[in-house]
């Protein structure tokens, strides 16, 4: 017997529900509120399509030369991350093997950064290097408080010495945790912290000195060893024992592979702690960071809390509680996948692309290099003096027309007169892409030179300097 259409022939039961056919671009509802919850549900494909279409307005991450964060990953790493998307990193009793992988990563980094006893390494993963930096700062503050109280001295006015070029997370740390930031302003061609300038700002209330292995502003390494030596001398002269924290957000995954002779890590006894971003030159998708201390004494025990309500006793020292384990698993995968030699080859390729790109930009004529990519694979360049037709902000806007996101910004005090463009070369930014970028840069220059006068200024720069925000150094004693 042939099947009958539901609207024809004899029906003995209730009328069946009509089939809903919703072509992708004509689904109900026709209007969706943006700032209030919809009154009812919608089909999952409808919700997906709405969001998917809106996200097309974002820039292309691979062409984003502003960010230090990884924008490319191997399919196997992404697959592992998807498989671990539901794992909560904090729940070490429920996900013991994920916790084990985190511990292995800590030990690998402890050896990479020459901790004195890497088999007893003290460290943890974080949601990113900003959280890791704040944990390092908190440990410095608490250690200083313990020393002051043990000596019967007041412990109410801690300060932290750092260059004005530090990433904004340090300004946040000082503000959130009530520590006076003592910024060392830039002077002349010194674009980061100097040893003498750091020591000048230290006193009995200084909890530590922050050094940066790879400045966000220009990619240069700060002289960690020289700062430590200056603090050694300060201790001999005054008795002040001031530790160093190394913000190795980017350089911690570059210098060990490309600059093994550079002494910046736990080989220096004065270095108490190090932070780094696994999701930058650690080659993992966002967001994972790492915080390590040279030994157990460098991390006060009273900062480590213990919880049992997830099952078992779990020590925790972090600003965040629940967070994904997927990125930690991806970090372990990348360590296994590449090994030391693989990381060296990746970072060397990045440096080769950066230095080649810097040399080509220098030959164009209108630009002077500030850095050439020979430390971090990052180059910064400015418009040469005497060129009045355009600014770095004009160049940034013109390149954006082709999809390139190149930040333009001014340096911090006392070099706010210096405006630069910065290119961050990451894994996935190949020699071929660098060539295409140069072609587009050459293409926009004749038009910019015909402008007659600049069309854009700092106010038109946009908001994607990615950490190169200028700080306003405050007077000592003020917050």
Automatic annotation (TrEMBL):
Residues found modified as N6-(pyridoxal phosphate)lysine: 280
Cofactor(s) needed by this chain: pyridoxal 5'-phosphate
Gene3D superfamilies per record: 3.90.1150.160, 4.10.280.50, Type I PLP-dependent aspartate aminotransferase-like (Major domain) (3.40.640.10)
Biased composition range(s): Basic and acidic residues: 449-461, 468-479
BP GO annotations: L-glutamate catabolic process
Family that this chain belongs to: Belongs to the group II decarboxylase family.
Protein's name according to its UniProt entry: Glutamate decarboxylase
């Amino acid at each position: 017997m042939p099947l009958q259409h539901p609207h024809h022939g004899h029906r003995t039961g209730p009328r069946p529900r009509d089939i809903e056919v919703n072509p992708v671009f004509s689904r109900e509802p026709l209007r969706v509120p943006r700032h209030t919850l919809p009154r009812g549900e919608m089909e999952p494909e409808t919700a997906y399509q709405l969001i998917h279409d809106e996200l097309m307005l974002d820039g292309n991450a691979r062409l984003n030369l502003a960010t230090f964060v990884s924008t490319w990953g191997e399919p196997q790493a992404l697959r592992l991350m998807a498989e671990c998307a539901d794992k909560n990193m904090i729940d070490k009793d429920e996900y013991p093997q994920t916790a084990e992988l985190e511990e292995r990563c800590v030990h690998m980094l402890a050896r990479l950064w020459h901790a004195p006893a890497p088999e007893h390494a003290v460290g943890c993963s974080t949601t990113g290097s900003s959280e890791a930096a704040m944990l390092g700062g908190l440990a410095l503050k608490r250690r200083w408080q313990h020393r002051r109280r043990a000596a019967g001295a007041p412990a109410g006015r801690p300060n932290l010495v750092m260059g004005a070029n530090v990433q904004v997370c340090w300004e946040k740390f000082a503000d959130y945790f009530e520590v006076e930031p003592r910024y060392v302003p830039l002077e002349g061609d010194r674009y980061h912290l100097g040893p003498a300038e750091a020591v000048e700002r230290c006193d009995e209330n200084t909890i530590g000195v922050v050094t940066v292995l790879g400045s966000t502003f220009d990619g240069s390494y700060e002289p960690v060893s020289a700062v430590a030596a200056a603090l050694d001398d300060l201790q001999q002269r005054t008795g002040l024992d001031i530790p160093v924290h190394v913000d190795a957000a980017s350089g911690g995954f570059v210098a060990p592979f490309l600059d093994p002779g550079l002494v910046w890590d736990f080989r220096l006894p004065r270095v108490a702690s190090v932070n780094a971003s696994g999701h930058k030159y650690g080659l993992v998708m966002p967001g994972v960071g790492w915080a390590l201390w040279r030994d157990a004494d460098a991390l006060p025990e009273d900062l480590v809390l213990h919880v049992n309500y997830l099952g078992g006793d779990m020590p925790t020292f972090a600003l965040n509680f629940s967070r994904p384990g997927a990125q930690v698993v991806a970090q372990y995968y990348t360590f296994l996948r590449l090994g030391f030699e693989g990381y060296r080859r990746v970072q060397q390729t990045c440096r080769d692309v950066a230095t080649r790109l810097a040399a080509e930009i220098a030959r164009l004529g209108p630009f002077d290099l500030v850095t050439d990519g020979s430390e971090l694979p990052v180059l910064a360049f400015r418009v040469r003096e005497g060129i009045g037709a355009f600014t770095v902000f004009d160049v940034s806007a013109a390149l954006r027309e082709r999809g390139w996101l190149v930040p333009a910004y001014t340096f911090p005090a006392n070099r706010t007169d210096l405006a630069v463009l910065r290119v961050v070369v990451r894994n996935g930014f190949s020699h071929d892409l660098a060539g295409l970028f140069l072609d587009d840069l050459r293409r926009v220059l004749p038009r910019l030179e015909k402008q007659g006068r600049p069309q854009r200024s700092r106010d038109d720069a946009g908001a994607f300097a990615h950490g190169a925000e200028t700080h306003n150094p405050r007077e000592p004693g003020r917050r």
